């Protein structure tokens, strides 16, 4: 058998803060994404000790404010997804559309009504919604007034938010994820925890405390969801970067083991197994803190144990390579993951190393570690697309990237026995990059006429990969040419 399971969830993935726009419409409050400047200076600005989560429109552009105007054009976009044959669509709810400051007692009905319309349109097209409850867009008020996720008060605010959206939509939405790429705080806690140097990012105690609070909040969401409907599937979502030692030197092998444990498994172990890993104390010590410094309770640990997630969602874009001995090959960067350059791999336009075999390894490592279904909810190639005179976009490089990764998934399913739920390539429609705030870093099957300076018609057009992916879905992965 060379096909995927009969009910395999083919689709695509986006995030509210990167495509919706309408940042101040219908009662929406500001989110952390709304004050992140656009351009290659985005990450360095957020790392500046003087950054205080304030907008400076005289100095910076804020492309997330407009996104690609999905807020007004979602019906057009979903019609295109349906044309491709999507079985599912992974998107996120903008938390600050529902609770503008994050700490209100009563939700914003206009925000809830927008997602009613979005979900109903999915259902109309027989597309399963896959919703991320929090995807790099926590309300700015929770950062400014409470200090971000290091404050335990956010557990209750998230619980209230999760209860509202799960209660409202559970009759139409079966698949959920609690936090996007929760382990990204290993490298950059601004996106997922609201922590920058000015409010605690340089003290790993705050990062570890923020994780603990998120773990507890995630379990509360699982509890709410399962009490509403035991058939709901609520997963975690991590970045997974398959990691290699550069050579057989035992020093590099041990360094690679520790890299895997700290980056790939620390968060997932808690959310999937329901308890902290055995290496917890060593990991915290290596980062200059300890378990005793964290504010935790016996009740917290009981909740984690009782309400683990149902499946493991993860993003996979590239692998990483560890060399503690020689630091050979220069640096390689990508998706908040560092490491040395792997000489056996090619790189994207943005320096992300392309490694489809690493996806097969990731699927095996995750499935056999946790024995729960896995779901590739992000994977894709950020590239510079060229629009020809006739309007065509020939993105054969994207097709080649995706083909090789789907072939790797096929081997993991058919040869290795991995229980894989589905595949939602990232940025199925062009959107604002999370790491750089650029439009020129394109992932989509659908081209959006908008440039880095905000110029363009916002018109949508089909790339060559659109028809290719349509054929992949219609044949359930059988035809990849």
TrEMBL record:
It holds the Pfam family Glyco_hydro_1. It comes from Lactococcus hircilactis. GO terms for biological process: carbohydrate catabolic process. The active site is at residue 378. SUPFAM superfamilies: (Trans)glycosidases. One of its GO terms (molecular function) is beta-glucosidase activity. Keywords: Glycosidase, Hydrolase. This is Family 1 glycosylhydrolase. It comes from the Bacteria. Belongs to the glycosyl hydrolase 1 family. GO terms for cellular component: cytosol.
């Amino acid at each position: 058998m060379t096909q995927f399971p009969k009910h395999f969830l083919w689709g695509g993935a986006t995030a509210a803060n990167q495509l919706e726009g309408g940042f101040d419409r219908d009662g929406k409050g500001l989110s952390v994404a709304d004050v992140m400047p656009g351009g290659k200076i985005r990450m360095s600005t957020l790392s500046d000790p003087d950054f205080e989560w304030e907008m400076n429109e005289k100095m910076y552009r804020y492309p997330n404010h407009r996104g690609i105007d999905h807020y007004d054009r979602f019906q057009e976009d979903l019609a295109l997804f349906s044309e491709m044959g999507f079985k599912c669509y992974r998107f996120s709810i903008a938390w600050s559309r529902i609770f503008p400051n994050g700490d209100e007692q009563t939700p914003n009905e206009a925000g809830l009504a927008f997602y009613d319309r979005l979900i109903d349109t999915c259902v109309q097209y027989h597309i399963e919604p896959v919703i991320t409850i929090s995807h790099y867009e926590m309300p700015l008020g929770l950062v400014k007034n409470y200090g971000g996720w290091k404050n335990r008060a956010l557990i209750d605010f998230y619980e209230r938010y999760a209860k509202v959206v799960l209660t409202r939509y559970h009759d139409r939405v079966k698949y959920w994820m609690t936090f996007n790429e929760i382990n990204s705080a290993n490298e950059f806690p601004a996106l997922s925890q609201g922590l920058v140097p000015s409010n605690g990012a340089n003290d790993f105690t705050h990062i570890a405390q923020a994780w603990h609070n998120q773990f507890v909040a995630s379990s509360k969401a699982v509890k709410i969801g399962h009490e509403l409907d035991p058939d709901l599937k609520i997963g975690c979502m991590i970045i997974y970067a398959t990691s290699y030692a550069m050579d057989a030197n035992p020093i590099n092998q041990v360094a690679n083991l520790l890299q895997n444990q700290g980056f790939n498994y620390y968060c997932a172990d808690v959310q999937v197994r329901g308890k902290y890993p055995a290496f917890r104390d060593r990991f915290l010590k290596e980062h200059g803190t300890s378990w005793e410094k964290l504010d935790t309770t016996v009740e917290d640990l009981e909740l984690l144990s009782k309400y683990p997630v149902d499946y493991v969602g993860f993003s996979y874009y590239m692998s990483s390579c560890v060399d503690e001995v020689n630091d050979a090959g220069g640096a390689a960067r990508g998706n908040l993951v560092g490491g040395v350059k792997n000489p056996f791999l090619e790189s994207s336009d943005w320096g992300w190393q392309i490694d489809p075999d690493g996806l097969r390894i990731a699927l095996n490592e995750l499935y056999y570690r946790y024995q729960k279904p896995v779901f590739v909810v992000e994977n894709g190639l950020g590239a510079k697309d060229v629009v020809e005179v006739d309007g065509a976009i020939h993105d054969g490089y994207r097709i080649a990237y995706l083909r090789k990764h789907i072939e790797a998934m096929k081997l993991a399913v058919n040869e290795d026995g991995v229980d894989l739920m589905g595949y939602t390539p990232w940025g199925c429609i062009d959107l604002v990059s999370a790491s750089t705030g650029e439009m020129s870093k394109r992932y989509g099957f659908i081209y959006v006429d908008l440039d880095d300076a905000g110029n363009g018609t916002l018109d949508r057009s089909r790339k060559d990969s659109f028809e290719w992916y349509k054929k992949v879905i219609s044949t359930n992965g059988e035809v990849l040419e």
